[in-house]
Amino acid sequence: MGASGTVSGPDLSVQIGSLTLKNPVMVASGIFGYGDEFRGLADYGELGALVLKTVTREPRPGNPPASRTVETPAGMVNAIGLENVGVEALVEEKLPLALSYGTAVIASIAGDTPEDFAACAEILDDTPVSAIEINISCPNVRKGGMAFGVDAWASAQVVRAVRPATRKPLIAKLTPNVTDICAIARACAAAGADAVSLVNTFSAMVVDVETRRPVLAANTGGLSGPAIRPAAVLRTFQVARAVSAPVIGMGGIWNASDALEFIIAGASAVAVGTVLFADPAAGNRVLAGIREYLVRHRLDSLQELVGSITLRDGD
Ligand SMILES: Cc1cc2nc3c(=O)[nH]c(=O)nc-3n(C[C@H](O)[C@H](O)[C@H](O)COP(=O)(O)O)c2cc1C
After folding, report:
1. Residues 175, 251: Cα–Cα separation, whole Å
2. Which domains does the chain have, with CATH numbers?
């Protein structure tokens, strides 16, 4: 029985600002484009939200198509470089299809200046997207991107520029490539972010020893997948204690148990990313497993589990 006394099962809903998600499992940005690339491979409408590929004010070609990704032990390194159709084409050509899945669609935006971010948000304000994720954490672009996310003041400046441009809930996507991720999270929340999401990829490099050159055309990239999971769980734990805004945790989630680690550490919601390349239905699997866990532990709502970790006292 759920909290409402019905037989519908535990209450899985999540509140992000004014937005209520039906459950906590999201698709992370950049994994299935604008919803078109994985069409028909799983029931994505069942998930809590779909975060679309980051878009910028103008379309971008991204890094050279050759050597943009490389597989590594328990993960991958990518340097796509924010290839995207631009915010206007997103709204006109891509959004209808993404919305047809029948669940919340979250747009992700980036730019070279805070004003670029604000211009994207203003265009998205008139659309049915449920929220806007501010990507201040892309490691694979020369200008903008992570340059904002590694500095608390610059991160806040972006959020502050976007806030008046839209009524949509705002999510700040944080990079783990910083000394103190809590300081960045606090600055974003104070500037008006309704939630923070973390982590984006960890800066990384893979070297071809025969040619003695980097494998990726961009030389460096971002590491994702199970290799980063324990590091991502720690940052989720730290940020959840640092801000009262909800935290969306991600980084190498492969199954429900992985997702539950993030939730128990403090995440209100989770996102699946790299795993979708191996199993397009992973999000559905994770969602079913979370539901099963709540039932097995006789919990009426997901909320009871969020941040419920009990620390050991150094035994
Ligand atoms: C191929 C690829 C492209 C990505 N593109 C974006 C992007 O456009 N915007 C963004 O915020 N994050 C992007 N990410 C980062 C993911 O959303 C996620 O934060 C990261 O991969 C960690 O989660 P995971 O280990 O489950 O993949 C991308 C990741 C991958 C692997």
Report:
1. 11
2. 14-304 (3.20.20.70)
